[in-house]
Amino acid sequence: MRFQPILISALGALALSACSQQEEIAAAPPPPPPPGAVPGSIAADRDGDGIIDGYYTADGMYHPNYTPPPPPPPPAPTQVGERG
């Protein structure tokens, strides 16, 4: 029996096994807090819709996000006038 082909194939498999190891990939950093968030706070999704509703600060107080209402639409043009 010849051991040389078996020995060469075993050494080749051993050498190639070092290439098959995958590198560890670091986890992505958390997204930055939106404008107006308090540093060191924890985001809160109270209604479970996947959108951040507010923040809990370190003292346990809940602070809701406040978005100002949009401005009212401009008034409709009047039908009184030269061409109305």
Automatic annotation (TrEMBL):
Domain of life, per UniProt, equals Bacteria
What keywords sit in the KW lines? Answer: Signal
Q: Where is the signal peptide?
A: 1-20
Task: Reply yes or no: does the keyword Signal apply.
Answer: yes
Q: Which parts of this chain are annotated as the region Disordered?
A: 23-84
Q: Could you tell me where the Pro residues compositional bias lies?
A: 28-37, 66-77
Q: What is this protein called?
A: Lipoprotein
Species, as recorded: Sphingopyxis italica
